[in-house]
Structure formats: C-alpha cells, structure tokens
Design brief:
Number of helices: 1
Largest sheet: 8 strands, antiparallel, barrel
Helix content: 10-25%
Order of helices and strands: HEEEEEEEE
Number of strands: 8
Strand content: 35-45%
C-alpha cells in the first residue's frame, strides 16, 4: 500500500512540474503588422518585440498582462503602458499612454 501512495505522490509531483514549466503563449491575435486608420503609424508586434513606425533599432520588449501591453526598451523601467480596448483578427484599438485612442487594421 505504501508503494502506491509513494508512486501517486511522484506522479502528481511530475504533473505539477510539467504544468508549472509550460511555456505560456503570448496573444497570437496581437502578433502581426498593423497600420493606423489614418496611415500615419505602423505597428509590428512579434513574439518578443513591439516595433513602432518600422524602426527596428528602437524595437521594445513587451509583455501582456490582462488587457494592457507593457513595453520597455532593453528591459529598462518604467514600462510604457498601452491599453487594448479591442482586438480581433483585423482590428486593434489601443489607448496610448497619453490617452489618445488609435485604431489599427491589418
């Protein structure tokens, strides 16, 4: 009986480790190339970088928490916050840090 309990503890510990170490997928709906409705701003979001206006040299790292995109240049703080108001396959509405709403489309 003790063997079964020990085996079940090991099984649950391994299962817990596997689920804890799974790589979380970033929001794939955000990834891609976006153009603002007025065509003044372009935005490219990859798995790791947030690139505004096609400037690859100033690409920022980002992470998404809830409905907010936090960006930083080379990991420096403070983070710049962009609030996602709406996202679907062809439209993205972002609230910029200076409270300006920008509509993007693919």
């Amino acid at each position: 009986m003790k063997k079964y309990i020990l085996i079940s503890y090991i099984f649950f510990a391994v299962a817990l480790l596997i689920t804890a170490c799974e790589k979380k997928q970033s929001n794939t709906m955000l990834q891609g190339t976006w153009k603002s409705k007025d065509a003044n701003t372009s935005l490219k979001i990859t798995g790791k970088k947030f690139i505004m206006d096609g400037d690859e040299q100033s690409a920022e790292d980002y992470f998404v928490k809830g409905d907010t995109i936090f960006t930083s240049f080379e990991g420096n703080q403070p983070y710049t916050k962009f609030v996602i108001q709406k996202v679907d396959e062809s439209n993205l509405i972002l609230l910029y840090p200076d409270s300006v709403v920008v509509n993007f489309s693919r």
